[in-house]
Each structure stands twice: as C-alpha cells, then as structure tokens.
Amino acid sequence: MDKLDKFSERPLFALIKAGGVNDMPVVVPAAAMSDTLIEAIKTVKAAGYRVTKTRLKQYRRKGKHKDRVGPTCVTEFADGVTVRMSTFTSLENLDWDRGEHLSIAAYQSRWRARHFKQTGILVDAVAPVPPAIVSMHFEQDGKVLAQRNGGGAR
After folding, report:
1. Closest CA relative to residue 133, chosen from 92, 94, 87, 99
2. What is residue 2's three-state secondary structure?
3. What is the pLDDT along the chain (154 residues), one digit of tens a residue?
C-alpha cells in the first residue's frame, strides 16, 4: 500500500498524488490538465483552500509614507555629540523618556562603532555611560515642536 493511499481523503495529499505539483508554479492550460488533477483541485477548493495566487500589487508599498513618520528627537550631549532619532510618539503627547532612551542607545552604538574602527576589537559589553544631556528637542519637518535645555533632559 502506498504511503499516500491512506491520506487520499486529504485534499493536499490528493493534489500531490495527482502529480504535476513538483513542477509548480507553472500555469497549466485547462486543456492540458488531466482529469485526476482537475478532481484534486476541486477537492482542495471544496476543503476551503485557496488555489489561486494572491494579488501582491495591492499589498506592496509604493515608497515611504511621509505622513506616518513620527517626530525626530534631537539630543546634544555634554561632549558635543548630537544624535537625531526618529521617535514613534504622538505629536500631542511627546514621549521624552523614549526619546532619551533612544538617544542614549544611539550614542552607545556610535561609541561601539568608533571603538571597533580604532582598535579592530568588537565589543559586546555595554558601552560606557554617555555624558550628560545638554539639550533635547523634538522637531518635525524642520519645525521645533518642544524643547528642553540646560542641565539634562529630565
């Protein structure tokens, strides 16, 4: 007894048993399809499986959606390094803590990259604590939305 015979009531195994599946995705004209393949496709459709390809054009993005970009958090550290991070936050209620954490992570990432470039040693450890934040503001399209200056972000 063939291994597929005991699964013949299952639609996908019926389609595989009918043959021609290994050569997919090839469009087979209706005149060239065998009766068993047609029956297998009907069984698959009856079981609720989709046999046709999805239309990918409706799901593709046509580029960046500028209206979905959140505000940019611009942070200046005491050593003069300025970090700019786009931040997912509402324009009405800016998330200062999120901006600060993202800026610190960007600072540490730059430190690791600079350290690797200078020494050739990849550092997996945590980067040193960055210097104090001198100023921090959120901007969008060149317009400053809110600002915090002097002595740190908090």
Report:
1. 99
2. coil
3. 455 444 445 555 555 555 554 545 555 555 556 777 778 778 878 877 765 655 555 555 555 555 567 899 999 999 999 999 989 888 889 999 999 999 999 998 888 888 888 888 777 666 788 899 999 999 998 899 999 875 444 4
The Cβ of residue 70 has, within 10 Å, a number of other Cβ atoms equal to: 18
**Residue for token pair 């550290």:** 77
How many angstroms separate the Cα of 83 from the Cα of each of 22, 23, 110? 53, 53, 10
Q: How many alpha carbons lie under 13 Å from residue 64 in its C-beta half-sphere? A: 4
Q: Which domain holds residue 11?
A: 5-58
- Same-domain status, 104 and 51: no
Q: What is the pTM of this model?
A: 0.52
What is the side-by-side strand order in the sheet with 82-86? Answer: 82-86, 72-77, 133-140, 143-149
